[in-house]
Structures are given as C-alpha cells and as structure tokens.
C-alpha cells in the first residue's frame, strides 16, 4: 500500500452549495492529519495564462469532447469555434456551461501534463473537482456513460456527474417519456415534486456530504489501486443508482465497512 503524504484538492469553478473547506477538513481528519491543500480551479492554478499555453490546452480540450456516444476515440480536428469556446472558458471557468460530455480518460491525461514534475509522484494525490460532465466508454453495452469520478493520476470528481451519472428511479424516466408523448416535456415541475429528495439536483445541499465519499474513493484508489467496496453501506460503494449513492453517503448506519475502517485506523494516532 502506498502511503500518501500530501493531498491537493482543486476547487470546482462554480461551487454553489459545495463547501470545499469542509471537504479538506474531512479528508485531513480521516487520514490522520496529513497536509491537505485547497487550491483554486485547476487550470487557473496550473497555467501561466500565456497565449500559447492557453491555445494548446483549449485545442486539446476541444479534441476530447465525445462526438458519438457509441464510438470511443473518434479522431477529428476540432472546429475553430470549438477551440475558441474552450479558450474563452479557460479564462472564465465559473461561467462555463456543463452540457458537453468529455472523454474522462483523455481529460485526465491533459490535466496530468500540467502538474509540475515535483508533484508527479506517489507522495502526492491530486483531486480535481470539476463542474464538467465526464464519461467513460463501457465496452459491455458499447456506449459512453457519465461518471461521478474518474480515477487515475490525477483523480477528477464531477459535481455534474453526481447529478447525471447514477441513474434516477425507473419511474422517473417512464413519467418523463409520458410527459414528452403528450407534448409536456418542458413541464418538469410536477416530476421534480413527485421525486423530490430521491435524486440529487443542481445546488443540492447534500453535495458536500456526497463528495466526501468520492474523495475517499480517490484516496483508496491512490493507496491500494481499488476505489470501491461491495458493501452498500460503505462510502466506497460504487453506486449505479441515485438511491444507492444517497444511501451510501448519507443514510448508511456507518461511514465505512469494517475492512476499510481498519485501513483508516492505521492513520489515526
Ligand atoms: Zn468498505
């Protein structure tokens, strides 16, 4: 097991209801007081802001947009307007819309290149919070899926992924279809009311508590190579449904299963 020495948490550009200082306190406590630094938004922190650098990152971000949900790794040259879009929002990340799906693995590779050499080793865990939508291709059902977290070096956790990744109740999708069939697809108020609390929405007060679990998944990924746990009550449970995520992060009788509690106890003095 790799023992971590530093955790660096990069803030999400438009945090809304997310309390990042609570997150760094939390991970510091669980890891026995190791240094956890809170940094600004990733590109704002790591880039110098020079034009060449901004152009390169913008072009690479535009390239990692998912073009087809069914086809991974489509090679294409982005349109100038797409590069302009990325460049503009590199300078103003807080106003970047979050409708585009990016290839999560390629996105991680871009981030990795802008981390300074002295922090590119196993002593340092970089966790990048993002409001952008990231997906990975699933070879089983041959399509991209939005994810809450992409684990690698660095790890990225998406607040939009919390909302769009784990599936909502089946009844929600059925009703949504029925609304669309009778031409009321914009009339979502009734839907939202009926399912209130059953899934996470934008500006949800539960976001901070939920992200604690995903941050700990990143910590375990970094230390052991495995971010997940089979216990639906453990914060490391790999939830595929909103209901499972809300249960593991907010309603479970305990935070971590016995096995993962034991691992964490090694860090407490
Ligand atoms: Zn566990």
Task: Provide an overview of this structure.
The chain has 2 domains: 6-166 and 203-265, Collagenase (Catalytic Domain); 167-196, no CATH class. The mean pLDDT is 92. It is globular, with a radius of gyration of 19 Å. Strand 1 (6-10), helix 1 and strand 2 (36-39) form a beta-alpha-beta unit. It has a 5-stranded mixed beta sheet with strand order 2-1-4-8-7. The chain is 41% helix and 13% strand. By secondary structure, the protein is of the alpha/beta class. It contains 11 helices and 8 strands. Bound molecules: zinc ion. Residues 229, 231, 234, 236, 256-257, 259-260 line the site of zinc ion (ZN). Zinc ion binds next to helix 11.
List keywords for this structure.
single chain, 269 residues, alpha/beta, Collagenase (Catalytic Domain), 5-stranded mixed sheet, 3-stranded mixed sheet, 11 helices, globular, binds zinc ion
């Amino acid at each position: 097991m790799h023992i971590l020495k530093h955790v660096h948490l990069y803030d999400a550009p438009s945090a809304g209801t997310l309390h990042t200082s609570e997150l760094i306190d939390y991970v510091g406590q669980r890891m026995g007081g190791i240094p956890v630094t809170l940094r600004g938004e990733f590109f704002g922190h790591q880039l110098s802001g020079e034009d060449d650098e901004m152009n390169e990152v913008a072009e690479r971000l535009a390239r990692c947009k998912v073009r087809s949900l069914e086809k991974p790794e489509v090679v294409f040259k982005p349109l100038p307007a797409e590069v302009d879009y990325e460049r503009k929002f590199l300078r103003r990340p807080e106003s970047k819309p979050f409708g585009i799906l990016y290839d999560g693995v390629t996105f991680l590779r871009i981030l990795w290149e802008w981390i300074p050499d002295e922090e590119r080793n196993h002593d340092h865990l970089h966790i990048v919070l993002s409001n952008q939508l990231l997906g990975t291709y699933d070879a089983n059902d041959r399509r991209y899926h939005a994810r809450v977290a992409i684990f690698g070096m660095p790890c990225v956790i998406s607040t939009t992924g919390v909302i769009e990744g784990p599936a909502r109740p089946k009844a929600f999708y059925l009703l949504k279809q029925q609304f669309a069939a009778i031409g009321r697809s914009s009339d979502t108020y009734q839907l939202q009311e009926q399912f209130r609390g059953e899934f996470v929405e934008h500006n949800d007060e539960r976001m901070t508590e939920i992200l604690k679990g995903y941050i700990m998944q990143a910590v375990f990924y970094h230390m052991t190579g495995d971010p997940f746990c089979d216990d639906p009550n453990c914060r490391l449970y790999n939830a595929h449904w909103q209901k499972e995520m809300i249960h593991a992060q907010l309603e479970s009788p305990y935070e971590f299963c016995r096995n993962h509690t034991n691992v964490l106890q090694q860090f407490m003095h």
